[in-house]
Amino acid sequence: MSGAIYRQSTRRRLLAAGVFALLALLPPVLQAFGQEFYISFAARVLIFALAATSLNFIVGFGGMVAFGHAAFFGAGAYTVAVLMESGVASAAIAWPAAIVVAAVLALGIGFVSLRTRGVYFIMITLAFAQMIYYLAISMKTWGGDDGLSLAVRSTFGPLDLKNDATFYWVTLACLGLCLCLLDRITHARFGRVLQAIRENESRMEGLGYPVLGYKLLCFVIGAAMAGLAGALIANHGQLASPNLLQWTQSGTLLVMVIVGGVGALYGGAVGAVVLLLVEEVLAHYTTHWHAALGLILLLVVFRAPKGIAAWVHGLFARAEKHE
Amino acid sequence: MTQLILEQALNGLQFGLMLFLLAAGLTLVFGIMDMINLAHGSLYMVGAYLAAAVAAASGSFVIGVLAAVAGTMAVGALLELAVLRRLYTRDHLSQVLATFALILIANEAVRAIWGDQPVMLNAPEALSGPVEIAGFSYPAFRLLIIAVGVLVALALYIAVAKTRVGMWVRAGASNREMTEALGINVKRLFTLVFAVGAGLCALAGAMLGPLLAVQVGMGESILILAFVVIVIGGIGSIRGALVGSLLVGVVDTLGRALLPWLLRSFLPGEVAAHLGPALAAILIYVLMAAILFWKPAGLFPARG
Question: Is the ipTM of this complex over 0.95?
């Protein structure tokens, strides 16, 4: 039995490695077809995949429906922009700083918010995110409503991030590392306990686990990864925009997670890719693409209630049963 | 100074009462069906647009408001029967996704019909000037909003607290299964509640239309405030919604008017000018976080 499970997860990891190899080949392929513009678009998709993945860790594995993830995403972006403004352009300093700022922020917000449950947790995380949003747009030194633009992209050792293909590969590496890390975490003891807490919190409390600590750490890890995604998005558009902090951003990330599959490791990434691709394609055909997107989302709710990842999972499980 | 404080307090009261119209429907939907409806703000937008269109066509603000309320109630009932009804048994995440989709569709529909530009909705001519009360002047239209808000709040209180249907609604909010077991058709009751909630949204949209801009996206910004209100008040509680609305309306309005001035008295001007607006904008969120910290289920929890 355990052998079968081992074989399964090995196969899935191989598959994931294959997908990443294919993704790494994307820039030269696009260049060959003269579609360089789409390299930058692909990088944006990967960044949102990372942000949605980090939220999915909190929502899907920690069982906490957080509606303020934009706060951490935006905090990462603003950290990089503010550091750039004061002359620190090195990614080696700025990006870890973005991660730390998002994590510290999450520590404080999580500590207060985790006192509440369910809907109240949704609303209190939203409240904190809104506070940070309003704080950011009222800071004249941070550009107010216009946001803070970056003069250049971060310097990254010998790599030249100004090159879109290089930036794409760095982003892909960040996403890959984070996914590997989350894969390890969810299969380790910490991740098991976390998922048990999601299933039955009072029982785990009764068994003597420090439930609050586990949930807080999960919240902080997710936020830290969102901080990294924020650092990337600031570099991508060379702008830390207040839009990144707005509640609609939290909503979009949550929608990506739900579309992709709550609690599936790749759910966030799948959702981000699907949503942004569908947006891009629809926008090509009609100016009223928002309505079309809305209809598609309704279709997902009623036809694929557990998200795309679960649906694909189901296909896999059926295929493996046939063997 | 007293003039300013009094005026801002009245503005806060007026804004709070309009928030209450939105929050009342939202809190009942939330309380009875345990359903997160992000599209509630869209009904407010639809109401404002309908009011503007009918008022422009008929030349009468009153006809515009009445048509908006009736039209939006119909839209709400239709929405409930066609889409939302299927979501009650689903988890919160599915509800968020589905109603988020409804926002996208509603915004696009409004944009397709009325275009991107904000639409004008004018207050009735007779009420455009100020009135004198006890030696200070206040816009007549805002006074009308306060009067309408108080009347509707009172009517809603009587309907919920004193009538049989209201009793069912309260029973449904505190324990839905038990109410169903007692033979009340909660499903049909809920379609009614939803339609009334939509009508109240439209009323708020139509009354606030002349003060705020009637434009696509107007629903989203006020939706968040309405959620803040019902969370502060306690989900499912009409009384909580009223207290929460007034609290949020007054704190937000007074904070914006007085905080910068207060800060200036003990901080250097430069810092106060930066800090004032920021603090004022986050004041209600601080209030909400503080209330949830000490009372994690809001001020008046409906479920005991």
Answer: no
